[in-house]
Amino acid sequence: MGTVSRLPRPAAASTNSTADRAVDLLLLFDEQHPVRSASEVSQLLGMPRSTTYRYLQTLRSKGLLEEESPRGFRLGSRILQLARVARIGLGLPEVALPVMREVAAKTQEAVILTRRSGSSVVCVERVESTQPVRLSYERGHVLPVHAGASAKVLLAFSDPAEIDSVLSTSRLPRFTANTVTDPKILRKQLLEIRTAGHAVSDGEVDEGVRGIAAPIFGADGRVAAGLSVVGPAYRLDGKRLPVMVRAVRDGAEAISRRLAELQS
Q1: Does some domain include residue 19?
Q2: Residue 3 pLDDT more than 80?
Q3: Which range in 90-104, 120-134, 161-175, 199-213 is most confidently predicted, on average pLDDT?
Q4: Are 138 and 247 in a shared domain?
Q5: How many helices (H) and strands (E) would you count in the chain?
Q6: Residue 206: count of CB within 10 angstroms of its CB
Q7: How confident is the model at residue 97 (pLDDT cuts 50, 70, 90)?
Q8: Model pLDDT, residue 133
Q9: pTM confidence score
Q10: What is the CATH number of the domain that holds 194?
Q11: Could you list the residue range(s) of the whole structural domain that residue 184 is in?
């Protein structure tokens, strides 16, 4: 029978407190070791058998461990409940950021996460480009609701009543020669975006800047945010555009799946 090697003890365990030991014990369980025997736990944590068993039984009584005789103990159902609460507590930026980094690595351009806030659009997270010439969007940066791919994709997938409200009550200022301010033309563009599943803009807010955006949906099926890649138009040219669109759409779909999993 093989021997069990002693794990390095965390610095926090040096306090020898009950809470530290309980946490150390729970952290012994992982994908490679879903079940631990009392003797393993005793040896790995350097605790007497009697003390180890007392800890195991206390954690079992709280639902944090379950006894699987004769093999030992495994994590209990209470752990699953706590994990679900932790997932629910994650905000949109925390859920989206790992995917945003992947999209930025694929495209080498800036990636931004946007949400609607009344008649404006706000950047809630961003990953900057590694290119020498790059665009920078700060968290909290406010964008117009009617111009640019990141804004239009949010509006295009909103309820018809919301679209009517925005186009009829919001100011639609012009920023460049490419900014569309005619509500009739905007409605047509929004329908095209909804049909295509993504938006592409060219210099609508800042001249020489191109954007590609796709919708992120919440567990309720409603648009929750937009994922966008933005960069100089000369880099996001016709040759690279299909690759960029695919990367943005894949990223938005991945974030949407993660949001759905949080509510499962």
Answers
A1: yes
A2: no
A3: 199-213
A4: yes
A5: 9, 9
A6: 16
A7: very high
A8: 63
A9: 0.66
A10: 3.30.450.40
A11: 90-262
